[in-house]
Structures are given as C-alpha cells and as structure tokens.
C-alpha cells in the first residue's frame, strides 16, 4: 500500500487467513478512581506483550469510567497476557491539553519501560502516533526513499499531498 498522509492507494495485496474458531474475550468497565491501578497494569502488560501474538487489548478511558476489552485467539480460561491499543475520549474541548498530556505521558512511560527492557522497536506505527509525533522518520532512509518514489510514480501531481489537510504527510517530511 502506498501511504500519503491519512490516504493510501492499494497497489497490491496478498491475503492469508487463519481459522479462528476458538477465541476468548472479556469486556470490563472500571471507575475513574481505579485509573492509577489500570495504568500500572498497562505498563506491566506492555513489557510482557511482545512474547504473545495471540493477545489483544483495547483501553478506552473517559472522565467517568474506563472500558478494557480483552481478546485472546485461543480457547482458554483467562490468559495472563494482552496487547493493547489505547483510545482517549472526552467531550469538552477545554480539556484537550490535559487529555493530550495524559495520553502522551502514558505513551512515554510505556516506551521508556520497553526501551529499559530492550523490547522496543524504533518503528512508530502511524496508526498509534499522536498529532505531536512524526512517525515517518521511523521508516528509515530506505523506507522514505521508497515512499517518495511511489509518490512520484502514482501521484505525480501530488494530489494526495496537497488536498489532505492533516496527518502524517510525506510532503512534510520531504520538505524538512
């Protein structure tokens, strides 16, 4: 796939499937007062998550409660490990700076822990990055060169770079 900011053009894909007839899942909600314990559990989980590709976790805090969804791609009672994606939501724009600072702080703690245990990778997935991060340099010089070549080939008029008003645009990294 060629990625141009938030827009992509699928030029080729291979599809592989795996039968998933035995899946364990659980959905939990926690009071806002439990957030410190939840964050500590997330940091601990992330440190161990690289060892188990069957686990998935969704972490969705709001001002009133936090929803945690757990998924494990095997038949089991209750697995000890989960991968996670965090989503923060709030309804009042006046809280934007505080919410972004909290999300950034959590992300930095998880990153620091992963680096301290030699478990971190230099790649930053654009789907996991915040607006204050720039994941494109983590593709490396060769990756950026391939993206630029694909952009020139498939978007010579730079439509995807000029009409997209936000996101991680290749044009921004190339101009730096």
Please describe what this structure looks like.
With 176 residues, this protein is an alpha+beta fold. It is built from 5 helices and 6 strands; from the N terminus they run E-E-E-H-E-E-E-H-H-H-H. The chain has helices at 35-49, 96-116, 140-154, 159-162, 170-175; strands at 2-4, 7-9, 24-31, 55-61, 65-72, 85-86. The strands form 2 sheets. The protein has a 4-stranded mixed beta sheet with strand order 3-5-4-6, with no helix packed on it. It starts with a strand and ends with a helix. The model has no long low-confidence stretch (mean pLDDT 80).
Largest sheet: 4 strands, mixed
Number of strands: 6
Q: Measure the end-to-end span.
A: 24 Å
Give the overall silhouette.
globular
Based on secondary structure, the structural category is: alpha+beta
The secondary-structure element order is EEEHEEEHHHH
Low-confidence stretches: none
Cα-atom radius of gyration: 19 Å
Indicate the percent of residues in helices.
25-40%
How many DSSP helices? Answer: 5
Overall mean confidence score, pLDDT = 80
Give the gist of this structure.
This protein has 176 residues and is an alpha+beta fold. Helix content is 35%, strand content 18%. Strands 3-5-4-6 form a 4-stranded mixed β-sheet, with no helix packed on it.
Task: Annotate the secondary structure layout.
Blueprint lengths: L1 E3 L2 E3 L14 E8 L3 H15 L5 E7 L3 E8 L12 E2 L9 H21 L23 H15 L4 H4 L7 H6 L1
Parallel strand pairs: 4-6
Antiparallel strand pairs: 1-2, 3-5, 4-5
Helix pairs in contact: 1-2
List keywords for this structure.
5 helices, two-stranded antiparallel ribbon, alpha+beta, 4-stranded mixed sheet, 35% helix, 176 residues, globular
